[in-house]
Amino acid sequence: MKKHNVFIEGAITPDFIANSIAKHQTKTTIGAHDIFLGQVRADEINGKTVSAIEYTAYEEMANSKFSEIREATFDKFELTCMHIYHSLGTVKAGEICLFVFVSSPRRKEAMKALEYLVETIKAESPIFGKEIFEDETHQWKVNS
C-alpha cells in the first residue's frame, strides 16, 4: 500500500486547490469531479468566538490511516483518482483546512464516494484540533 503525505502546513490555499484540479483536465475518462472544502468556522462557544484552530497529528499514524481510507474507498467506488489534504498548524477562521477531491467516470459515484470519504475522515483520522479564541484562550475541539 503506497502511503501519501496528506499534510500541508497551515491553510490550504486557493492556488493549491486550483492547481490540483487543473491537473485532471486532460484525463478524458473522467466524467465528474466532486470536491469538499472544510473551512474553519468562527463558532461561538460559551460566549467566546473561535479565531483559529491549531491542528496536530501523529503524522506517521495519520498517513497510514489515510492510506487505509484511500484503499477502502477505491475498493468500494469506481474512481479514477482521489486527493486528500489536511492542514497541520494554525488555520484561521475562514481558511481551508481539509481538501478532498475525487474523480470518476460517473457523477453519482463521485458524489457517493466523496460523502463516504469525508464522513470516514471525520470519524477515523487521528488529527486533533485546538480551538483558539479571540481572547487567546483555547480548548480541544469536539468533532462536528
Task: Write up what this structure looks like.
By secondary structure, the chain is of the alpha+beta class. It has a single domain, classed as Molybdopterin biosynthesis MoaE subunit (Aldehyde Oxidoreductase, domain 3), CATH 3.90.1170. 31% of the residues lie in helices and 38% in strands. Strands 1, 2, 3, 4, 5, 6, 7 and 8 form an eight-stranded mixed sheet that branches. Strand 3 (44-45) and strand 4 (48-57) form a beta hairpin. Helix 2 runs antiparallel to helix 3. The radius of gyration is 16 Å and the shape is elongated. The mean pLDDT is 93.
Write a compact overview of the structure shown:
The chain has 144 residues and is of the alpha+beta class. It has helices spanning 14-22, 59-76, 107-124, and strands spanning 7-9, 32-39, 44-45, 48-57, 81-92, 96-104, 127-133, 138-140. The protein has one domain: Alpha-Beta Complex (Aldehyde Oxidoreductase, domain 3), CATH 3.90.1170.
Topology, element by element:
Elements (H helix, E strand, L loop, with lengths): L6 E3 L4 H9 L9 E8 L4 E2 L2 E10 L1 H18 L4 E12 L3 E9 L2 H18 L2 E7 L4 E3 L4
Helix pairs in contact: 2-3
Question: What is the CATH class?
Answer: Alpha Beta
Helix content: 25-40%
H/E element string?
Answer: EHEEEHEEHEE
Q: What is the number of strand segments?
A: 8
- Give the number of domains: 1
End-to-end distance: 30 Å
C-alpha Rg (nearest Å): 16 Å
Shape: elongated
Give a short account of the largest sheet.
Answer: 8 strands, mixed
Question: Strand fraction band?
Answer: 35-45%
The fourth-level CATH homologous superfamily is Molybdopterin biosynthesis MoaE subunit
**Average pLDDT reading:** 93
Please identify the structural class as seen in this structure: alpha+beta
Number of helices: 3
Low-confidence stretches: none
Give the second-level CATH assignment, the architecture.
Alpha-Beta Complex
From the 3D structure, determine the CATH topology: Aldehyde Oxidoreductase, domain 3
Pathway: Cofactor biosynthesis; molybdopterin biosynthesis
Subunit structure: Heterotetramer of 2 MoaD subunits and 2 MoaE subunits. Also stable as homodimer. The enzyme changes between these two forms during catalysis.
EC number: 2.8.1.12
Family: Belongs to the MoaE family.
